[in-house]
Amino acid sequence: MRDVVEKAIHCAWQIHYHIVFPVKYRRGLLDDAVVKIIMMTAKAIEDRYDIEFEQIGCDEDHVHILCTAHPKIAPGQIVRVFKSITARELFKWKPDLKRDLWGGEFWTDGYYVATVGERADWGVVERYVKNQGKPKEELRQLELF
């Protein structure tokens, strides 16, 4: 987590959100090619909106995002922008995904959001997001016996 206090003309803030949402029907569609499109699209969203994605982690059927944004941007707006733009780009570059989702939407309607520090400290959440999609064997601690 950056300990930087962001500043604008009339306010200063240090807000970090942990946002989670799954693929529609919890389908395991987030392979390497799809994740690459999501990451490229996230960069484009950062350039256009006042949102900074600090960490994005993808498992096969859901996404974790750590981000910060100007306080005027509600967490629900961040989710709406991210879901709509990434879904449009995914269907444009990988039209076969629509078949896997029976011609419907890419993301579910719901989401989870928490401010980091409210439910867990930054380091715990960052490691959790960073380790999304890694095999469980890689994440296990060494056993003594």
Automatic annotation (TrEMBL):
This is Putative transposase. GO terms for molecular function: DNA binding; transposase activity. Residues 12-132 form the Transposase IS200-like domain. Pfam families: Y1_Tnp. InterPro entries: Transposase_17, Transposase_17_sf. One of its GO terms (biological process) is DNA transposition. It comes from the Bacteria.
